[in-house]
Design a protein that fits this description.
The chain has one domain (7-59). 14% of the residues are buried. Helices cover 64% and strands 0% of the residues. The protein has 69 residues and is mainly α. It starts with 6 loop residues before the first helix and ends in a 10-residue tail after the last helix.
Length: 69
């Protein structure tokens, strides 16, 4: 897999996942939506760690910085 998630994109994804986690553990979100958002947060963390997003691949998006020769 070729990386298609850049550094700033990773930071945003991880920050959003942390916010969702804090909202869950502070009991601000609950019920079915909490589990949906926790799943979304897990996917955000996973794509950040792998530096690859399948949706970006389908849409042809690449947020990695280009290397010049």
């Amino acid at each position: 897999m070729k990386s298609n998630v850049g550094t700033s994109d990773k930071v945003i994804r991880i920050a959003l996942a942390i916010v969702i986690g804090v909202l869950y553990f502070a009991d601000i979100i609950s019920g079915t939506w909490s589990y949906v958002l926790l799943g979304f947060a897990f996917i955000l963390i996973l794509t950040s760690v792998m530096s690859f997003c399948p949706i970006y691949k389908l849409l042809g998006i690449n947020s990695c910085s280009l290397k010049t020769k």
